[in-house]
Amino acid sequence: MGERMRIVIVGSGGVGKSALTIRFLQNKFIQEYDPTIEDTYRKTMTIDKKSVFLDILDTAGQEEYTSMENTYFRLGDGFVCVYSITSADSYKKMKDCMENVLMHKDQQYFPIIIVGNKCDLKTKREVTPSQVAKDFKKTKYQYIETSALEGINVNKIFIDLVRTCRKHSLFLKEQEKKQKNKKKKKNCIIM
Question: Does the model's pTM come out above 0.85?
Fold first, then answer.
């Protein structure tokens, strides 16, 4: 059995979180849209010759369900923060979502991939890649534009996030090791 990761997909309603998830899991596009309250999916895959079992939580984007967010934020190992390139408002809400994730994780950095969905609708674009690059210039977050409709970069989101989670986990283990070594040195009394 391989490692297990909890991936949480967040963003406002109607940006295509469920469409991205279904495209990833079943390689099909869902036409009809029912607002998601919460759906959990599972998929096992091999990335870099290591097996990984993904628990994917597709969260609600509707305001009335935001009370569930605290649980999502605490449990997630990595986050897919989605907005629609055709909606500046969804971009603002996605940035607010990211802030909530970081606040709940009590860290300045956490495995997050920023996803601009609906790149097939370039003529209706309200958010440019240069705007995203400017807003996140000082961070390590990866930015990907996707299309659930056309299947563009959908698998890349999850593969790259797994790799980022693995690196972050190694980093945290190294930090923990350094802390233990510091404590040991403090506890040693030289006579």
Answer: yes
